[in-house]
């Protein structure tokens, strides 16, 4: 165990405290609560109620060098308290911070107490990312996009803000994902140039239209006195990938919004068209849709209908 009786631990723009009390580590709770953006009084009451038998008022040293009594919880009980907070019940702007604290806080404090430092297992080294860097460089040279756009696609795919936050176990998947993009773009570039901005615009428009459609549907269902199911979940990454692979291949798509939530994209053959009964005679005259070999069959079927 570290010989210090108190350790200041930097964690997500906050400074947390671990102190030695009765030969076991305790952590001051107010810095953790406020670091998560939660109201101290509500959590103070919860701590008193649920952990009253183990919490202690312990003398700690503040940044100003003065002594303060702080409510502290045994470090081994911290995870239990963290799990009493539901990310779905806090303000949306606090949700990500709460999840980060629940995922990492107790481990980081324990590592500082036992090892004197904490290593974030989510962050990889440049050496570990070497294969990914080569793959991205290849993508940039093939597709003629800048590195920022290329890395942004990878960040969105793995839902991280920085490339070093892709877990080590997922780096091979990231390399495979980039290679898949290269193969897709290589096939498309044989026919037409790639416009990344157009793809991103289509992605945004599609998301907006789907959400708008669902909103109008919900209003109509409520107006008729019915009950609307839960909102479908729109995954931006899945939408972007579907659009990219379909649009860049020059194919048409049919969008289906499911009543039970979610949507699907179905391919339409290149030679397929949307028709109604009034447009059929005109379509027969189009040489790009109906070949001369098909005309006798069409005439035969038409004559068959006329004599019935």
Which topology of the largest domain does CATH recognise? Mlu1-box Binding Protein, DNA-binding Domain
Give the percentage of residues in beta strands. 5-15%
Low-confidence stretches: none
Helix content bin: 40-55%
Give the H and E element order. EEEHHEEHHHHHHHEEHH
Would you tell me the overall average pLDDT?
77
Structural class: alpha+beta
Strand order of the largest sheet: 1-2-3-5-4
Provide a count of the helices.
11
- What is the total tally of β strands? 7
- Distance from first to last alpha carbon: 97 Å
Oligomer: single chain
The domain tally reads 4
Overall shape: it is elongated
What can be said about the biggest beta sheet?
A: 5 strands, antiparallel
CATH class of the largest domain: Alpha Beta
The name of the CATH architecture of the largest domain is Roll
Q: What's the Cα radius of gyration?
A: 30 Å
Provide tags for this entry.
alpha+beta, 308 residues, elongated, two-stranded antiparallel sheet, Mlu1-box Binding Protein, DNA-binding Domain
Structure description:
The chain is α+β, with helices and mostly antiparallel strands and 308 residues long. The chain has 4 domains: 110 residues, Roll (Mlu1-box Binding Protein, DNA-binding Domain), CATH 3.10.260; 60 residues, no CATH class; 73 residues, no CATH class; 31 residues, no CATH class. Helix content is 50%, strand content 15%. The strands form 2 sheets. It has a 5-stranded antiparallel beta sheet. Helix 3 runs antiparallel to helix 4, helix 5 runs parallel beside helix 7 and helix 8 packs across helix 9. The radius of gyration is 30 Å and the shape is elongated. The protein starts with 5 loop residues before the first strand and ends with a helix. The mean pLDDT is 77.
């Amino acid at each position: 165990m570290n010989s210090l009786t108190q350790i200041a631990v930097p964690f997500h723009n906050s400074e947390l405290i671990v102190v030695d009390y009765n030969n076991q580590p305790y952590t001051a709770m107010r810095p953790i609560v406020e670091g998560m953006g939660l109201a101290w009084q509500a959590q103070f009451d919860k701590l008193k109620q649920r952990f009253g038998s183990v919490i202690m008022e312990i003398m700690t040293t503040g940044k100003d060098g003065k002594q303060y009594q702080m409510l502290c919880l045994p470090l081994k009980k911290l995870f239990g308290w963290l799990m009493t907070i539901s990310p779905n019940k806090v303000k949306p702007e606090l949700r990500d911070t709460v999840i980060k604290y629940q995922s990492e806080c107790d481990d980081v404090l324990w590592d500082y107490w036992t090892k004197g430092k904490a290593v974030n297992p989510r962050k990889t080294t440049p050496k570990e990312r070497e294969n990914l860097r080569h793959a991205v460089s290849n993508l940039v040279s093939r597709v003629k996009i800048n590195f920022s756009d290329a890395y942004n696609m990878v960040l969105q795919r793995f839902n991280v803000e920085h490339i070093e936050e892709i877990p080590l176990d997922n780096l091979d998947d990231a390399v495979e994902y980039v290679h898949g993009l290269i193969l897709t773009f290589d096939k498309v570039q044989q026919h037409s140039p790639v416009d990344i901005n157009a793809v991103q615009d289509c992605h945004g428009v599609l998301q907006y239209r789907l959400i708008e459609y669902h909103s109008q549907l919900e209003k109509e269902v409520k107006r008729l006195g019915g009950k609307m199911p839960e909102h479908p979940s729109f995954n931006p990454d899945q939408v972007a990938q579907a659009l990219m692979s379909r649009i860049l291949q020059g194919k048409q798509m049919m969008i289906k919004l499911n009543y039970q939530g979610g949507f699907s994209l179905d391919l339409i053959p290149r030679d397929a068209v949307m028709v109604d009964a009034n447009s059929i005679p005109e379509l027969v005259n189009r040489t790009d849709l109906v070949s001369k070999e098909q005309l006798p069959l069409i005439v035969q079927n038409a004559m068959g209908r006329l004599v019935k």
